[in-house]
Design goal:
This protein is of the alpha+beta class. It has 4 domains: 12-46, no CATH class; 59-177, no CATH class; 185-251, no CATH class; 255-412, no CATH class. Helix content is 31%, strand content 22%. The protein has helices at residues 12-21, 25-31, 104-112, 128-138, 185-192, 197-206, 211-220, 232-251, 323-339, 362-369, 379-389, 394-400, and strands at residues 59-64, 66-69, 76-83, 115-122, 143-149, 169-177, 255-256, 260-267, 270-277, 282-289, 303-309, 341-342, 344-351, 372-376.
Length: 413
C-alpha cells in the first residue's frame, strides 16, 4: 500500500473510493470516516482487521465501566452498556487518561475486550434499558451485570476518528444489575436539578470530574432539562466544546504570559509543538498529514489544514479537523489555566506514518495534557526551536497560518 496512489490504485480501498465517490486523499483527511462521501460505511475503516482477544458467549457476567450510543438512524439509536465478560479492574478499559503511554496493541486489547450489549431506543423516550444503563453510568465504580444476548456476538471492532475503538456487539435479551450502584451526592444533585446540560457539565468539571466521565453522563441522557440521549461520538466533541468555552471565559481574566512558551510532545504517531505567544487569546491549529498515515495511504504530498478562532470565538464547526480541534483546544486551555495566564495559542500537529490506526481524539487531548514545557525570551528563539522539531518545511506551515501572517508577527520571518 505504501507505493500506490489514487492515480494508480491497486488496493480495493482506493478502487472502491474512486469508483463510488471520486474522493481523493485530501477529502479523506477531512472526512475521517464521517461518511461525507455518502457511502453507508467508510471503506477505509471497514478494512481494519483485529485478532480475536476474548471468548464470546451469548450469556456472560462481568463489570460494566461505561456505555455506547450509536449515531446512525438518529433519533432511533443503539444504546447499551459496555462490559467485560470476565472479572477484572474495569476502569482502565474505558478511561483514556490511564492509557497514556500505552501502544496501539494495548489500547486495542482494552477495547476489544468490552462487549457492546445493545437495544434500539429513541433518544427522548424512557425505558427499562435506559434506566438500567443510566444507573450503571452514574455509579462511582463499575458495577457487575448479567447479560443475555439474543445471539452469540461476532468478534468485530468499530473504529472511529472521534471515539475510542468499540468491541463486539450483540442485541440484548435480558440485562440485570447484580449489585447496588454507588452514586455520589454531587452527581445525584446535578442530575436531579432542573438545569441545562452545559451548566451541569460545568459544575461537575469544577468538582473534579474529567471529560471522560462527563461524556458518559451526557451520552446516557441523565443531564439537562429534557434529558435526551446523545450519541457517543457527538457527546465527546460536545463536552470538549462546552468545557472549552467555559475555560476561555476564565482565562480571559488572567494576565498575558510574559514569555514565549512551547509545549512539545509525540505519542501514537502524533507530534505536537504548541506555541504560546504573549498576546490576548486567539487559537489556531495547523495540522500536517504526511503521506502514508492511516488516512493518507497513497497520498503523494503533505496536506496541511488550518482552523482558527479569534478572541471572540468561532461561529462555525471546525469541519476540516473535526473533534480533534476541540480536544486539542481543551488541552491547551487546561495548560493555560494551570499557569493562570492567557496567550495567543498556535498548535502545530504533525501526523506521521506511525499513526496507522484511528483510536479517537483522546490521544490529541492527552498529548497536549502531557506535553513538556519550554520557555523562550524571543519569538525568534521559540520558532527556531519549533522548526528544529518539525519535519515539514516551515514555509508550508506559514503559508496556511492565520496567526503567523499577522502584521505584528511578520517581522520574525
Amino acid at each position: 500500500m505504501r507505493h500506490q496512489s489514487f492515480l494508480t490504485p491497486r488496493c480495493k480501498i482506493f478502487v472502491d473510493i474512486y469508483k463510488s465517490t471520486e474522493i481523493n486523499s485530501e477529502k479523506c483527511i477531512v472526512c475521517k470516516g464521517r461518511l461525507f462521501c455518502g457511502l453507508s460505511k467508510c471503506p477505509i475503516l471497514a478494512q481494519i482487521r483485529v485478532q480475536k482477544t476474548v471468548t464470546l458467549d451469548r450469556e456472560f457476567f462481568g463489570p460494566s465501566p461505561s456505555l455506547f450510543v450509536g449515531w446512525k438512524n438518529y433519533p432511533h439509536v443503539y444504546y447499551g452498556p459496555l462490559s467485560l465478560p470476565f472479572e477484572d479492574e474495569a476502569e482502565i478499559y474505558d478511561n483514556p487518561k490511564l492509557w497514556y503511554g500505552d501502544g496501539f496493541n494495548e489500547i486495542i486489547n482494552y477495547r476489544s475486550s468490552l462487549i457492546r450489549s445493545m437495544e434500539k431506543v429513541r433518544v427522548d423516550k424512557e425505558s427499562k434499558i435506559v434506566e438500567d444503563v443510566q444507573e450503571i453510568v452514574l455509579s462511582e465504580k463499575p458495577v457487575d451485570i448479567e447479560v443475555k444476548l439474543k445471539k452469540k456476538p461476532k468478534f468485530n471492532i468499530l473504529f472511529s476518528a472521534i471515539s475510542q475503538p468499540m468491541g463486539p456487539m450483540g442485541k440484548i435479551e435480558e440485562l440485570k444489575i447484580t449489585e447496588n450502584p454507588r452514586i455520589s451526592k454531587k452527581v445525584d444533585k446535578v442530575v436531579n436539578d432542573d438545569i441545562k446540560a452545559e451548566n451541569a457539565l460545568d459544575i461537575l468539571y469544577k468538582e473534579g470530574y474529567d471529560v471522560y466521565s462527563l461524556t458518559r453522563f451526557l451520552s446516557s441522557g441523565v443531564l439537562g432539562i429534557e434529558k435526551k440521549i446523545v450519541p457517543t461520538r457527538w457527546s465527546i466533541t460536545a463536552v470538549d466544546d462546552i468545557i472549552g468555552k467555559k475555560l476561555i471565559t476564565e482565562i480571559k481574566d488572567f494576565k498575558i504570559v510574559d514569555r514565549y512558551i512551547v509545549l512539545s510532545n509525540s505519542y501514537l504517531g502524533n507530534h505536537f509543538e504548541i506555541l504560546l505567544i504573549p498576546k490576548k487569546w486567539e487559537f489556531e491549529i495547523l495540522e500536517a498529514w504526511i503521506p502514508n498515515t492511516f488516512w493518507t495511504m497513497g497520498a503523494e504530498k503533505i496536506n496541511i489544514t488550518s482552523e482558527y478562532e479569534t478572541y471572540f470565538g468561532r461561529k462555525t464547526y471546525a469541519i476540516k479537523q473535526g473533534g480533534g480541534y476541540y480536544a486539542i483546544r481543551l488541552g491547551v486551555l487546561e495548560r493555560l489555566k494551570e499557569l493562570k495566564r492567557q496567550a495567543c495559542s498556535l498548535v502545530f500537529r504533525e501526523v506521521t506514518p506511525d499513526y496507522f490506526l484511528p483510536v479517537g481524539v483522546w490521544e490529541c487531548r492527552e498529548n497536549v495534557r502531557n506535553a513538556e514545557m519550554n520557555f523562550f525570551d524571543t519569538m525568534k528563539d521559540a520558532l527556531e526551536y519549533i522548526k528544529s522539531k518539525l519535519s515539514t518545511d516551515f514555509d508550508l506551515w506559514k503559508e496556511k497560518s492565520v496567526i503567523l501572517n499577522q502584521e505584528t508577527l511578520e517581522s520574525f520571518f
